[in-house]
Amino acid sequence: MALLGAITDALFRPSSRAIDIIIPDVVFEEIHRDELIITQHPVEKGAAITDHAFKRPAELEMRVGWSDSTAGYMGYARQVYDRLRRLQDERRPFPVYTGKRRYANMLMRGLALTTDDKSEYAALVVVALQEVILTSTQTTGGQQNGAAAPGANSDQANPASTGSVTNSGSVATTDVGPQAFSGAFSPGSTAAPGDLGLGGAVVEIPLKPSQAQRFSVTLSDVTYNMRLTYNIAQDGCWVLDIGDANGALLVAGIPLVSGVDLLSQYRYLGIPGALLVTTDRGAGEVPTFDGLGVTSHLYYVAP
Known about the structure:
The chain has helices at 3-6, 68-71, 76-90, 159-162, 178-185; strands spanning 18-19, 26-33, 36-38, 53-55, 59-67, 94-97, 102-114, 122-131, 143-144, 147-148, 166-170, 174-176, 202-205, 213-219, 222-231, 237-243, 249-255, 274-279, 296-301. The chain is mainly beta. It folds into two domains: 3-131, Beta Barrel (Elongation Factor Tu (Ef-tu), domain 3), CATH 2.40.30; 164-301, no CATH class. The strands form five sheets. The protein has a six-stranded antiparallel β-sheet. A five-stranded mixed β-sheet has the order 11-14-15-16-17, with no helix packed on it. A hairpin with a 7-residue loop joins strand 7 (102-114) and strand 8 (122-131). The radius of gyration is 29 Å and the shape is elongated. The protein starts with a helix and ends with a strand.
């Protein structure tokens, strides 16, 4: 008896269903999964929520079958199973067509075959598929022979809102003398950081003006990933995102305001020390777009 005739609860006969170019004789079930990963950390009020949630690759599980009787000769089901195994081994994205949806770039994450006394001449397969999210990147060049390369921030009408994020890699901090720091943080003061209740040794985290940037930096023997972008809303300000060494986001959207410890409200994250911003504009002011790292500085004070 043909497989399609034996299984009365099959959902449909093959028409538009296909795994790459392999068309099932019968499809019993399709399970589509779409998930959104949302940060569990507090989000700064006013920050873009889209920066704190991302879409996981779509997943699809199909229960499908083939029978020797469908093709009219023995060994057909085995041949189809071998084709599925080769498709998985190739590890190339391929399209999948279902009754509800078309997927453009999928890989076969799992392949399970069940054989019992009633399915010796059939292939009843569970195929687990996962989407591969393909992206394209755009590289912007720096200045060449004194002229800005096409796409560089200086070549844009509004670089504060349209400039790309520059990857500065791993940056090294610079030691800052206690009196020099105290004078910057509290103009006219010659007190040591400890006298101001700010901990001990001070280092400056190097920043670049007029460009969004991301980098890794080691503070108190712990590596963090930092990302600075410019928020053009209202008067505009720089905002800081901090992630761990593996890139997992710890906190996002911290405004760079001078005169306060940027980490004071995030002690539950276990980040030691203090992050402080100074600017020539005075306490409470924010670094300008083109003044970051020039007239304004980011300091880390060890605990």
